[in-house]
Amino acid sequence: MNIESLLTWSRAQFALTACYHWLFVPLTLGLGVIMALAETRYYRTNDPNWKRWAQFWQKLFGINFAIGVATGIILEFEFGTNWSNYSWLVGDIFGAPLAIEGILAFFMEATFIAVMFFGWDKVSRRFHLASTWLTIIGATISAVWILVANAWMQDPQGITFNPATVRSEMTDFWAVALSSTAINKFWHTISSSWVLGSVFALAVCAIYLIRKDTKHRAFALANARLIAPFGLIAALVTAATGDTSAYNVAQKQPMKLAAMEGLYEGGLSTPDGKSRWYRCPSFSFGSIES
Fold first, then answer.
1. Phi and psi at residue 83, in whole multiples of 5°?
2. 8 A C-beta contact, residue 94 and residue 177
3. I want to staple 193 with a disulfide (CB 3.0 to 4.6 A). Which of 29, 33, 43, 154 is the partner?
4. Could you give the CA distance from residue 280 to residue 290 in angstroms, rounded to a whole number?
5. What's phi and psi for 211, nearest 5 deg?
6. By C-alpha distance, which of 179, 93, 196 is closest to 144?
7. Which of 207, 193, 108, 109 is closest to 147 using CA atoms?
8. Region at 105 (left for phi over 0; alpha for psi -120 to 50; beta for the rest)
9. Contact assessment for residue 134 and residue 108, using Cβ atoms and an 8 Å cutoff
10. DSSP 8-state symbol, 216
11. Beta 167-170 vs 284-286: how paired, if at all?
């Protein structure tokens, strides 16, 4: 096998795993908040219907959570198997957020998700509600550190290259964790996940209403009233964070923004009337040179 085919297969495998992973993770984050809101309503009203409905959303959450975890672990292994040289070169920086995600967030999720699924009628309602919220908070914290790692790849900060070891080394952890790219990525990704979860859950409610299923009509109406306001707020936050994210890309990665907008040909005139060009193998992107 030549190096070109090996690279192609490595990219294809990683892309397939990432696409499959991303089908379930945003839905998990969105459904997590919805199941927590449903159980909060049960805690406040002590209505057994809300307990059943919260358990229903938890089942859907659990299915997505399991598949998301399985594919996510495979992705992390592929950084070592498919991109070993990259991992060796920047592992000091790139590996730190992923290690924190595993030690902090993943253990938090694993602990409280067990109580959430198997603790019904075994622990107090207050403790069970806390476990449910801590489960989704843990999943959100997990997303934080994964997005920090991804943001560093888009906007490298807080690093220096060590010629002695021929590796990049972290010099400022907080510059990596709190970069503008990381903050924008987090809020936009999380809020869009809430939108996805809301749309999915409202679709479930809508199916029962369209079918005029009298058995589940109360479930559909009550949950739609709970989910719709949350989804509306999430949609507004997504729109706002999407705008700031695009602005951040324009500042940090103008060529990437051009590709996102489909501007494969073009240029921007400078005061002297000339255009400055950055050329890639496939496309040409215009930008003013500093």
1. -125, 55
2. no
3. 29
4. 19
5. -75, -5
6. 179
7. 193
8. alpha
9. yes
10. G
11. unpaired
Contact indicator for 188, 241 with CB cutoff of 8 Å: yes
CB neighbours of residue 97 within 10 Å: 22
SS3 string, 51-91, reads HHHHHHHHHHHHHHHHHHHHHHHHHHHHHHHCCHHHHHHHH
Determine contact, residues 90/141, Cβ cutoff 8 Å. Answer: no
Which pair of tokens denotes residue 6? Answer: 């090996």
pLDDT tens-digit series, residues 244-253: 998 888 888 8
The secondary element (H helix, E strand) that includes residue 167 is: strand 167-170
Q: Is 264 helix (H, G, I), strand (E, B) or coil?
A: coil
**H-run or E-run covering 284:** strand 284-286
pLDDT (tens digit, 9 = 90+) per residue, 59-105? 999 999 999 888 988 988 898 899 888 888 998 898 899 889 888 88
* Alpha-helix residue ranges (DSSP H) falling in 178-216: 180-210
Q: Which residue is listed with tokens 């959570």?
A: 65
Question: Could you give the angle at the alpha carbon of 143 between the alpha carbons of 141 and 147, nearest 5°?
Answer: 120
250 CB-near residues (< 8 Å, 6+ apart):
257
